Amino acid sequence: MTADAHERVPKRANGEREAEVLDLLLRADGALTPGEVAERLGGELTYSSVVTILTRMHAKQLLDRTRRGRAYAYAPVTDDPGFAARRMRTVLEERPDREAVLARFADSLSARDADLLRQLLGADQDEDR
Predict the structure, then answer these.
(1) Are 63 and 54 in contact (CB under 8 A)?
(2) 74 backbone dihedrals φ, ψ, rounded to 5°
């Protein structure tokens, strides 16, 4: 690759690439193969780079995959709100004092969000009965 090619495509962190690929897959009508992902990224990444990213994301349980011909087709395991909820749960699980974290989180909510959370928790309790 020439020096000019390196200047056109700046190197990004793996997390940024994963976020870009995840966003692409969330907007897709269905599962995509690595070739389709590479094409939709505008040829910015090689096929093998896309395969590596998708394989890592599958290993992290962010993507499901199914055989499509000789390749796998990848799709997100959940939608965007589901991924946000997973991130919140991961942060909570990493902290030793769950009660303190939840209390601080609840204290930081706007009145509107606190009311919404109460409604959602109340709906869950109604379903348990």
Answers:
(1) yes
(2) -110, 140
